[in-house]
Structure formats: structure tokens, C-alpha cells
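Chapter summary example.
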Amino acid sequence: MESDTKALRVEFPDFSCSILQKLNQQRQRGQLCDIIVSIGGHQYRAHRAVLAASSPYFCDQVLLKNSARVVLPEVMNPCVFEGLLQSCYTGSLTLPTCEVVAFLTAASFLQMWHVVDKCTELLEGNTSRSHKTSLGLGCRRSSQAQQHPSPDGESHHGDRGDEACPRVKWL
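The structure predicted for these 171 residues follows.
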């Protein structure tokens, strides 16, 4: 007797976006995070799988070194890293136009080549409407970052805005 080889394929187009949104919510609450990224006195909780999927640098740190804590150079601006971290979970990046070089430098270090390419385009003046860039409002520098308590009792930074200058948002 022949088995029926026909199969139905069902797709859920918003599923991957929904998963990242939920992971981002967990990150912001400090839930189920399994890695801490430190820059100077700032600590950011995240999910290893999200970081490893977003950055070859983090992939190496997680897979080759099995790190639960990654210490980034203090010359990296914590606000810039926070923006890059947020982009790993959202697929969009908002950056102050006056910080494009800082984002380019940090993204180069983290091997986030898609960000490097966009920053390079911005610096070369090669952005076009096809890249869907839009100017947004400036963000504020705040000495007090929004912090979220974590299960280990330490405070870890959440999302916050910095730098009082215009920014570009890639949609």
C-alpha cells in the first residue's frame, strides 16, 4: 500500500517577529537572560542565542569561549552598544546622526556588518529613499539610566535615550 506523500505547508508570517518581540520584553525585564555584556560600569542582560545570531563576535564568545559574561572595551560608548543591542531584538536601529562614526566603530568591533554597511552609506552620503531612512527627534543624555532589577538582585540597564542631536531611523 502506498503512503500519501502529499503534505500541507502552513506559514505564520508574523511568528518570527512575535518571538523577537517577546524575547525583547523578557530581556527588558531581566527574564531568561543567560549572558551579561559589561562596558565600564554598565551591564546589559541578553539572550546568548539572539546575540550569537546577530553578531559573529558574540557567536565566537558564546560558542568558542562559552562565556556567560562578555566584557567590551571601555572606549565603546554604552549608549551606542545599547542601541545595537536593541537592534538585535527589533531589526531596526535608531542612531543620532552625530554618532554615526561611533556606531560604525562599535558595529565593526562586534562584526555587525549590516550596520557597518548602513553607517558607511550614511557617511558617504549614499543613502537613498529606497533605504527608508527618516529623521527622527533627538534623544536625551541622561545620567540616570532606566534600570531593571534582575533575579540575581543586580541592576541592569534597560533601554534609554541619549545624545541631544537628530537621529536616523532605519525602518
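To summarize the output: Residues 15-29 form the longest helix (15 residues).
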